[in-house]
Design a protein that fits this description.
By secondary structure, the chain is α/β, with parallel strands linked by helices. It has a single domain (3-221), classed as TIM Barrel (Alpha-Beta Barrel), CATH 3.20.20.70. The chain is built from 8 helices and 8 strands; from the N terminus they run βαβαβαβαββαβαβαα. The protein has helices at 20-29, 52-61, 77-86, 101-110, 156-169, 187-192, 202-205, 210-221, and strands spanning 7-10, 35-40, 67-72, 90-93, 114-119, 137-141, 175-179, 197-200. It has an 8-stranded parallel beta sheet. Helix 2 (52-61) runs parallel beside helix 3 (77-86). The chain is globular, with a radius of gyration of 16 Å.
Length: 224
């Protein structure tokens, strides 16, 4: 895969929320492709983060980059509607958090967004059977969702390789995203396992120079 086909999606969970618009604008200008939203509800996961108003505020601020919304909530349907109206581009959710996965996927698409499913580290890709032809993206969690700054779970590399094989063998137009503990030191390993879209929070927002760290990540992804 050519370097330009890789997507780097900084998670704003690690940004400075006192100047969020400026932070997101800076990271996009530094070369990031998407903006990643970690939406937690203090129910499906034990943390509480951000809602649709933040998404709308960034759009109103002038952020035009794709916004990638990961719903760690239960139930999902009402927030699908709210985030689609607020300017989301991609909306992904955990299948076990929906009462009807097909209905929720349809709701995302009907509201003009691209749809995806998310698998926690202990959930097999087999649960995606029957849904893949309706998806634009599959997100593999490489940490257990709930908190930023966790260490990457190495077993997800094998899972990504299996998922990439399924995508390729079935000629599916699906992006394969990995989220959790991705940093400069391991992003190449994640890409080699088959991922093409990388969520990284503290590894980017924790650096003083966003351009430098994103460029280093891109350089590490270059095909030799």
């Amino acid at each position: 895969m050519a370097t330009k086909d890789y997507i780097i999606a900084p998670s704003i969970l690690s940004a400075d929320f006192s100047r969020l618009g400026e932070e997101v604008n800076s990271v996009i200008e530094a070369g990031a492709d998407w903006v990643h939203f970690d939406v937690m509800d203090n129910h499906y996961v034990p943390n509480l983060t951000i809602g649709p108003m933040v998404c709308r505020s960034l759009r109103d601020y002038g952020i035009s980059a794709p916004i990638d919304v990961h719903l760690m909530v239960e139930p999902v349907d009402e927030l699908i509607k709210s985030f689609s109206k607020a300017g989301a581009t991609y909306i992904t959710f955990h299948p076990e958090a929906s009462g009807d996965v097909n209905r929720s996927i349809g709701l995302i698409r009907d509201n003009g967004c691209k749809a995806g499913l998310v698998l926690n580290p202990d959930i097999s890709i087999d649960v995606l059977e029957g849904y893949l032809d309706k998806l634009d993206i599959v997100l593999l969690m490489s940490v257990f969702p709930g908190f930023a700054g966790q260490e990457f779970i190495d077993s997800v590399l094998e899972k990504a390789t299996k998922m990439r094989s399924v995508i390729n063998e079935n000629n599916l137009e699906i992006r394969l995203e990995v989220d959790g503990g991705i940093k400069l030191e391991n992003i190449k390993d994640v890409a080699d396992a088959g991922a093409d879209t990388f969520v990284s929070g503290s590894a980017i927002f924790g650096e003083p120079d966003y351009f430098e760290i994103i460029q280093k990540m891109r350089d590490s992804l270059k095909v030799e």
